[in-house]
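Running co-folding for 4'-phosphopantetheine.
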Amino acid sequence: MRLAVYPGSFDPITNGHIDILEKTSKIFDRIIIAVIHNVTKQALFSLDERVELIRESTGHLDNVEVDCFSGLLADYVRTKSACAIIRGLRTVSDFEYEMHMAMMNKRLVPEVDTLFAMSDSNYIFVSSSAVKEAALLGGDVSSLVPPVVVRGLKEKLCGR
Ligand code: PNS
C-alpha cells in the first residue's frame, strides 16, 4: 500500500490543490490530506471548516481522505507509515522554501521522501492567500476555487 501525505494550511483549498491531488492520486494507492492545526497562525476558515471544504471538493477522488495534524509533520507521517510527502510546486520562488522543508523532513524522517508535483499552468498564480485577498476586495474567484469554497468565501466575507 503506497500511502502519501499531502500537508498544508488549505485556507482554503484551491483548484491548484485539486489539480495536484488529481495527478498524484493516480500514483499512490491512498492519499491523506493533512490539514495543519496551527494555533499561532490566524486562518480565515476554522480547522473544521477547512476540513469540510476539502471533503466536499474531493468527493470525486476515491482514494483521498482528510485528516488534521499539529506539531511536526515528520511525526505525523511516521505515525501513518506514509512513504511520501506530496507538495505542489508553482514557480521557482516556491522552490527554496520547499527544498528546505523537504530536507528538514528527510533529516527528521529519513524513510519518507518529498515528491513535488508541478501545478498546471492554469494555476501557477493561484494561492490561498491571493484567492482570499481577491475575494475580500470583491474579485470573482469562481474559476480558481471549487464552488463550495466560493460560497464559503462569500459567507465569510459578506459580514466584513
Ligand atoms: O500550505 P502551507 O502553509 O504551505 O503548508 C506548510 C506546512 C503545513 C506543510 C508546514 O508548515 C509544516 O509542515 N508544518 C508543520 C511543522 C513542521 O513539521 N515543521 C518542520 C518542517 S520545516
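Result summary
Helices lie at 15-24, 47-57, 73-79, 92-108, 128-136, 147-158.
The CA atoms of residues 71 and 142 lie 33 Å apart.
Job closed.
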